[in-house]
């Protein structure tokens, strides 16, 4: 494993992302949806503030974390789930279809370099996506006083959850040479990890706690949304990412002897 | 096609196993999927038997087993790391007012545990995540705390052993005693632990018969229903005493309260109160402006001076509160008093009169002010003009400039007995309307804890999330709309397309 080689592959990959319109379209849609959700929440909050002033003391406390940040970024988490498979679908599938994979496989770079290089590139795209939503907290900081710590924890949580989703997307892309099939597989897996906790209702407590723990959004993204950084959530996302990158590595490696 | 049959079979098989695990029983659907999966996998094996034979013979089998074993080992490590992390973890609370960090009070209470404390929360699966997190914090803070979340539907025997029939009840057991609470909050749980740590029942006796505020009034703004509930939440037993009908205050009254008396006390009632204090009783008096039930004279004997005035503050008051300034906000507290030394919150004193230590030098009566209004306040003695005409003006001849004392605490020595007394210049601060405003409840509950000699449990109670409001002008709202919904996405889209076409041309 060499950092230099990983970075070279990441740059090559980034270049290919930005020479196709996909990255721009995803960025534009992501920022549009963020902007729309943000505007709707702000409008609603402004209305609630007026109501609050009118009936002071008779309605519960108003809180920017609960009324704007939590619902806004909670929605964005689900939107990431829908968009990330599109970012990662071509990671390995395209190489397979174009036949360039053999070239890479026989090049002096190791398979680990390739996996980590491509992962770094997609993580950079994720950072760009998250950075494109920064106008929302900037507006909030200008017109109100939201918890800066909560904003920080939300972005850290989004990043960790995002890289976990990217690892699933890369795994799906390593399975097939068809980009659409790769996107559908990763979408299916991510949806499964989102909804897995829902099955915990009515099942025995031990299985229920495992199913709840496995949930990608409903369990581990809730703490960062509230302003909590928890080592359990960090370890879950990092180990989840590691495991799917490891699976990706194994799948690609198996092609050498299959 | 052959390949698809294999994958399809495997997928259906996994779904069947998953449904079996979740349902905990072999239902028709789980069996059907399980069998269909096996049939499809077998069909795939038959159709691909030549390839399988080849696979089983060659080095591919070796590599295949190698990969499967490696994946299982890595998965095992990942599961183990996550399992350990659920027991040994750390969390950082980044909210401004440490909303998700256990409060000082809880810390103090948990430090007082001398035996194991078992918390059993009865919540249906999927409904108790926040309580699970909260209880984990208790266990994280004290090694004496062990907790369990039980589904009463799934484990009815455990529920029955605790006499639980409904969801959302928390049972706390300590040193052979148990207590139940349905308040699944830090405040609810800590208060329940406080109750368990007590060795005796504390009776709070509430005087009636002189137009005092009603403890049974839950709905009216002037009622004391919420105050009674707050006392009961702290496991005080609240008893009403019709003072004119009794010859002496019962000896089991740990704290005696008189709040908002309007009608005068009879001389024999005054004797009863005097006797109670002389015997070392503990009394809380809340006395409103424009009233004189005779208690003012009674208090003056103990060097407590109650002013015939109303404290006004037109600067330090609630935004949009009465402009006359009759609801001053108190921010200054005694730093040496056991009631207020850890107290940091603001309190609101609606329609309050001054209450301060008198000039007597009697060393047996030690009276100290515990709460003072701001420098911008003054005591208005011209009550007629104030209430009939609604005019408030500082008159240097009769009025006094702030800061003004509006609450005192005192210890009174009578031979071998020591009485405790706390006096507030208003009874309105804990009415249903004001009890939850700012930190009113905390100040009065701290006073009662001190009176009942439980000052070791006093600190600020758990606080809710910050209250914030946001008001946007028309143009600010439009700016957000145009920038976030239209301009930024369009810039990214067209900028991107421009960059893309340029790169393509190159």
**SSE-based structural type of chain B:** alpha/beta
Q: What is the overall shape of chain B?
A: elongated
Q: Number of helical runs of chain B?
A: 14
**Gyration radius of chain A, rounded:** 20 Å
Number of strands of chain A: 1
**Strand arrangement across the biggest beta sheet of chain B:** 7-6-8-9-20-19-16-13
Q: Pick out the low-confidence regions of chain A.
A: none
Overall average pLDDT of chain B: 85
Count of distinct strands of chain B: 20
Which shape of chain A, going by the Cα principal axes?
Answer: globular
Strand content of chain A: under 5%
Describe the structure.
Chain A has helices at residues 3-18, 22-54, 64-88, 90-98, 100-105, 111-131, 135-143, 148-175, 179-195, 205-214, 222-226, 231-254, and one strand at residues 228-230. Chain A has 258 residues and is mainly α. Chain B is α/β, with parallel strands linked by helices and 506 residues long. Chain B has helices spanning 2-23, 28-47, 49-57, 59-87, 104-111, 129-141, 156-161, 186-197, 225-233, 267-278, 295-300, 383-389, 440-451, 474-505, and strands spanning 91-93, 117-122, 145-150, 169-174, 177-181, 202-208, 236-242, 253-259, 282-286, 304-306, 310-312, 329-330, 332-333, 347-348, 355-357, 365-372, 378-380, 400-401, 405-414, 417-424. Chain B has an 8-stranded mixed beta sheet with strand order 7-6-8-9-20-19-16-13, sandwiched between helices. In chain B, strands 3-2-4-5 form a 4-stranded mixed beta sheet, covered by helices on one side. In chain B, helix 1 runs antiparallel to helix 2 (28-47). The two termini of chain B are 43 Å apart. The mean pLDDT of chain B is 85. Chains A and B meet through helix 2, helix 3, helix 7, helix 8 and helix 10 of A and helix 1, helix 4, strand 1 and helix 14 of B.
